[in-house]
Task: inverse folding
């Protein structure tokens, strides 16, 4: 935080964090910090649970597929991918778009409201479709950081 005052005044736009990883990863973490502090425009953010004994789906795989399907989307959108029906609904409700998974299905939330329940096999596809709708609506509303939506994200299900 030594540079916090400078960054808050708009002096500088990059943070490099020391990690045991390639330099490109260090810059990515620095950008994420700037976004979290509100010093850089927020982009697409995917949050997921760490998985626990309550998870009834493979959260890692689900989050990976959603991330891959939304890659390249640069809108200020928070997507929650949750693996249970205990804590999942609260986290999904707090996001712009989310899913609480369990019992072979997923409850899809948009802006805090359940809009539908889909079979587990349709969760990724549905989240991507809803993300595209939200991005298009944000563009129509002129929301800052919502560039034109071009192309169609790909869905990779293995």
Result:
């Amino acid at each position: 935080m030594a540079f916090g005052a400078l960054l808050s005044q708009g002096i500088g736009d990059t943070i490099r964090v020391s990690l045991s990883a390639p330099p490109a990863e260090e810059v990515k973490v620095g950008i994420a910090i700037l976004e979290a502090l509100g010093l850089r425009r927020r982009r697409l953010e995917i949050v997921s649970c760490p998985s626990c004994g309550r998870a009834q789906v493979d959260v890692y795989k689900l989050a990976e597929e959603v991330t891959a399907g939304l890659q390249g989307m640069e809108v200020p959108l928070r997507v929650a991918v949750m693996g249970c029906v205990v804590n999942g609904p609260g986290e999904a409700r707090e996001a712009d778009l989310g899913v609480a998974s369990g019992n072979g299905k997923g409850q899809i939330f948009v802006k805090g409201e359940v809009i539908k329940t889909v079979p587990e096999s349709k969760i990724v596809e549905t989240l991507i479709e809803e993300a595209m709708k939200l991005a298009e609506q944000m563009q129509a509303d002129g929301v800052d950081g919502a560039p034109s939506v071009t192309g169609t994200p790909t869905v990779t299900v293995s």
Summary: The helical segments are 4-8, 23-36, 59-69, 88-94, 123-141.
